[in-house]
Amino acid sequence: MSAPSVAPAAGRAGAATDGPVPRRVRPPRWLDLRLVLGVLLVLGSVLLGARVVTAADATVPVWSAGGDLAAGTVLTADDLVPVSVRLDDAADAYLATSTRPAGRVLGRAVQAGELVPRSALEEPSGLVQLALPVQAGFVPPGLARGQVVDVYAVADPVAGAAADTGGDVDVVVSAAPVQAVTGRGDGVLSSATTTVQVVVAVDADDVAEVLGAIGGRGLVVVVRSADDAAGAPGAAPGGAAPAGTTD
Q: 67-80: per-residue pLDDT in tens?
């Protein structure tokens, strides 16, 4: 008895060879041109925006005047206020807050809120602060540091002088910048006869002349107008013209 023979499965083998061939999946290309261009555009936008913001905030801190200050005023820290402004190429012309100008003298008047230029500062040259006792009734109520005043000596018993000093009225200090006003009070005990100390800046060489011109007479303080004070570089005794002016 012979074993049955098995015919080869030709049909199934052919079906297997005729089917679709699987394709290999390619990994993503990170250097795709569109991706690179997108990244460059984002970076460019960020850099441009940062530059615009930086340019808009390109301010520098400088000093400005806290109030009206006359020429000849010896600066203190309380006279100046720090502000941040955009000056571009002009920044070097003004006084940066990194400097300490206290003790220096203003060569010209500076208005409240005005930036303080470097060119307006001068070194003290022979100026001294002279305290003048004046009765409160002969001092303007609004007298303050930085104003320019004329000081008159009068032979008036009410102003503190003896009756026999004569009737002359003389200018003993002219165009003097006020450095301080002390002793004035607003309480119930204050009166028109309260002594107020008005401190003005004068040349050291003129102190004796100023005191001699007063001669024990009472003093009256007169505030100059803003227009007159703007060009007043300092004090001159005895009614003389301020230094640097001509008749």
A: 888 888 888 888 89
CB 105 within 8 A of CB 123: yes
> Is pLDDT of 99 > 60?
yes
State the Cα torsion 139-143-149-154 to the nearest 10°. Answer: 0
| 8 Å CB contact between 161 and 219 | no
Residue 139, pLDDT above cutoff 70: yes
The answer to whether the beta carbons of residues 125 and 138 sit under 8 Å apart is no
Query: Per CATH, the architecture of 60-122 is what?
Result: Alpha-Beta Complex (3.90)
Partner residues linked to 220 by β-bridges: 152
Q: What is the DSSP string of 173-215?
A: EEEEEEEEEES---STT--TTSEEEEEEEEEGGGHHHHHHHHT
Interacting residues of 236 by C-beta distance below 8 A, sequence separation 6+ = 173, 174, 175, 206, 242, 243
